[in-house]
Hints:
The chain is mainly alpha-helical. Helix content is 59%, strand content 4%. The chain has 28 helices and eight strands. It has helices spanning 51-60, 70-80, 87-91, 123-155, 182-185, 195-233, 259-271, 278-293, 314-339, 347-350, 353-378, 397-407, 411-415, 449-493, 501-531, 537-567, 577-598, 600-615, 623-630, 637-654, 660-682, 692-702, 705-721, 726-740, 743-750, 763-766, 774-777, 782-806; strands at residues 64-65, 106-107, 241-245, 304-311, 386-394, 423-424, 427-428, 430-432. A four-stranded antiparallel beta sheet has the order 4-5-3-8. β6 (423-424) and β7 form a beta hairpin. α4 (123-155) runs parallel beside α22 and α16 runs parallel beside α22 (692-702). The chain is globular and about 95 Å long. It starts with 50 loop residues before the first helix and ends with a helix.
Amino acid sequence: MSARPSGYQKFKDEEAFVSNRQEKAVDVSAGVLGKGAGAADFPIDQIPPNFEFAELHREAWNVGTTKLSKRQKRNLQKHQKTQSNNIENDMIGKICDCCARQVPNHLLSLGCNNRDYSFLGAGMPLYFEYIKSCILMLLIIFVTSGDYNIITNIAFGKSCQVLNKELQGQDIDEKQFCQLSWATQTSLANKRNGDQFIDLQQMLNLISMITLILLFQYFRKEQRAFDAEIDSQTQYASDFTILLKNIPTDPTGLQNGDFDEDLKTFMEQYVQTYPKLPEIVDYEQERKQYQIQSKKPVTDLRRVVSVNLCYNLDEQYQLEQQKQQKIVQKQKILSSLYSQGKEPLSQEVQNDPQLVSVDAEISAIESKLEELEKKFIEGQDVKNYFLGQAFVTFQWENDAQSILNEHKLSKFQRLIGKKSKLIYRGVPLIVEEPPEPTDVFWENLHISTKQKILRRLFGYTITAIILAICGGLIYWLSAIQAESAEEQAEAIKNGDLKPNMKVKIIAQVASISIIVINAILAMIIKNVSQFERFSTQTGYNISLASKSSLAQFINTAVITFAISTWVTKNIYGAGGLVYNQSQVFVLNAIIPAIISLIDAGTISKWLFQYLEKKKGNKSVKTQKQLHELYERPAFDISVAYATILKNMYVVAFYASVIPLALIITCFALLLHYWVEKLNIARRRSIKYNYSSQMSIEMIEQLELVLPIYCGTNLWWEYAFLGSISTEAIIGICLGIGNAILPMHEINEAVFPMQSEVDEYLPIQEAEAGFLTDYCRENPATAETARQQYKTRVEKHKQQKQNMDKMFGDA
């Protein structure tokens, strides 16, 4: 937790603070950052672009922090005195005009502690802890039952045989004959006739199940403790903010017809009913003392800092699309002129009639965008746009938490008709905890619940159709492989004992095909999830991770299992399920890690950046397009979670019959862990603050491992022995019960904990550690708010230097 500043020191940055509320626009230019005091417009659509701006933008999106330790400051000062100072060091502390992001002072290293990711939201360090938890799960399954399974399969299993002369000339059933190989020897198929071993195996599997249930409670407890620790040490804009819904959209009775100002006045009056903490009273008294002694006007801090309204942005996005279409026309005209040998920025180019005409059309669209943005910022005459939702940010975190504690209702309470007691203009408001600023899909807030349901049903239908197509492809490969197995059986009957290489090649092709299909599935499901139009990035991420992992699991494990069990009826024969799936585990452990390590996306960006820079002034990209080109590939946590969940589901499905999969998958997750750390440290940009809700939901999804594991244990016992043990029945009951019961709520009841909150730290001090805020992220107010932020930070630096001199700290 941040220590409360003492004496005058805590007021050094006080005057640098400018309210986050959207100030009235006087002269705002659409497509550029608003005109701040003495600040030039940022040329977001200029052609040719400025490559130095693009490099600054890239560095501003590095994964790192802007706060320096004493050691880091000394190192930075040391480097600044040397001539070897590179471009990155020159940019440290600078702010990118287009996104108002500051270039980090300290980049995260490959071996950093997972807690170091906390400035990206609690969900980021919890993601890496999640991978470690999955590895621990696999190790526990292996220690409690997997090692016994492998040892007895190899040492005592005699069901699989080597092709030898004794079999020469015999008529064998290629589907029932288990040919000894590394895959079959370590599998349950090799001891399928050993009743005594399988009975003990089921007892050990039950012990694994009980251990995992207890382990999940430990995971949840540690997850919540980790989240509470991060929450107490790191502050976000959401800590000082509440989300209000059901706000009346009728302007009748508003003060000056101003939605945001009227709501702000109401909330300022309402929050006065809450007593101030003694620490806050002390802070304000010391602040007044500082103002008096420094001969500055004595002013009180307002308890409500800003109100950011949510709008229907369809009109804004349509105008932006029209503008982009005109920019594409402009780019085509410029390309044509350059190909004719005309020089960029020459009078001949600038006076070209076609170019002048397109520029005029772009200016007309920008004027419409400017007028629309002025409406949004002023909060007046927006009846047709206002959605009845607003983010209200307070000076003190305690005020936001007090209102949430008193007026926040659960979904169940709202379902049974309970209303909030916070009444505004005769209407009970809905009070909710807000998502992080970068977590909001502002353009989707106007989508109705009915539309979202219909879109999601359509999404599930498309996913089912794709899985059916994938199943057909896998069936086709299995049919070819079955023909090859029959050819091998016929060859053995004719005295040829040579292994049929066609069976092995098809097994490799099938394994690679499954990996390729999974990649295609992930891309398609990502587009389907985008079509569903979620209101938050977390909702989208959870949906994408859940659907993608389940679809890839069905494609990787269930379809192959169904075809091998009921269609080709080949479990352990040549080209059967055991051999093919073992190949899938091995290739799935290696290929994705290699692809991620090579990182074709980053390499291709480097190449295109080089080619674009060679064009110089003849580049026809806009500044915005060049920034997008220079950005490092964005980290997608939903795809990462989907990959992990798919691996866990598949290994749980086959762990009892292919126990070696536990070790292979453990190795795969370990590779994934370190490759992810490498990519995030140096080759990714992270655009969102990830909340702990994502990790909580992924633990819920991970619990499906238990019913999958115990269900397949029961099945394989029945398939090989024709009977079902009591242990298997108990295991499946425990697994299903654990998946159905509200285990997160049970964990909260058994292990209560509460995070400590730095309630007396004002937002003017806390905002220095925010990656962003609601005004800077809301497209309706972003242009002006980002320029205000840059002005505020620059003023902060100058006044801090002055205060350091005043108090002798320079």
